[in-house]
Amino acid sequence: MWSVSGDPNETIRKNSVDSFGKANPDSEIKVTFFQNDAYKTKIKTAIGADQAPTIIYGWGGGVLKSYAAASQVEEPDLMVRRQRRREGETV
Q1: Where are the beta strands (DSSP E) in the chain?
Q2: Would you call 55 helix, strand, or coil by DSSP?
Q3: Is the distance from CB of 1 to CB of 53 less than 8 angstroms?
Q4: ∠ at Cα 14 (1, 70), nearest 5°?
Q5: Residue 12 DSSP one-character state
Q6: Which residues contact 47 (CB under 8 A, 6 or more apart)?
Q7: What is the pTM of this model?
Q8: 10 Å Cβ neighbour count for 23?
Q9: Which tens digits make up the pLDDT trace of 23-66?
Q10: Quick one: CA dihedral 34, 38, 43, 49, positive or negative?
Q11: Strands (E), 5-74
């Protein structure tokens, strides 16, 4: 997971990931934080090169909307449903 550094959001994200890890010990989420401008450049480059992490922080609208329109990102619940289908679960 990539995200923007700085509180209060950085602490909230760290706590959320820690809580997820405790509830899902077989899954691991590693979080990397970047300064705002560096993040914008890094995520744009990574998405363009199809090298983005599984989870990203995004501002609604503008840039995130263009990534979604180009099928470069998708909602996490869609990823979970697709994975469950592959594993034979009914969703």
Answers
A1: 2-4, 32-34
A2: coil
A3: yes
A4: 25
A5: H
A6: 56, 67, 72, 73
A7: 0.74
A8: 8
A9: 989 989 999 999 999 999 999 999 999 999 988 988 877 888 88
A10: negative
A11: 32-34
